[in-house]
Amino acid sequence: METEAAAARQAKESLELAFQMSQILDTGLDRHTLSLLMALCDRGANPEALAALVRELSSAAPPAAAPSPVNNSATAPAPPTSSMFPSGFRHP
Q: How many CB atoms lie within 10 A of CB 40?
């Protein structure tokens, strides 16, 4: 059980380090998307192919809309802006 906890801690630290590097490089990837990409690499996916896919999908994604102001009225909420990634990744 202790080794499982150590493995979980190591995975969390690895993700945090990768996310910090991602932020420095201004990739626009959030932690969730980054963790999915890392999991795919761990399962044998080609990292270069994943990078090409991320580039292609982010260039095909519509530009991110400016966030709308908070409205406390009873009107229906605005539809979410679409993203090619389930985690909401936006191309900078």
A: 15
CB 90 within 8 A of CB 33: no
Residue 91 CB contacts under 8 Å (≥ 6 apart), including other chains: 28, 58, 59, 61, 63, 64
Q: How far is Cα 56 from Cα 46, in angstroms, rounded to an integer?
A: 15
CA atoms within 13 A on the CB side of 30: 8
Alpha carbon distance 71, 78 (integer Å): 10
pLDDT in tens, 46-69: 999 999 999 998 888 776 655 555
* Contact present, 89 and 29 (Cβ < 8 Å): yes
User: CB under 8 Å to 84, separation ≥6 — which residues?
Assistant: 57, 58, 60, 61
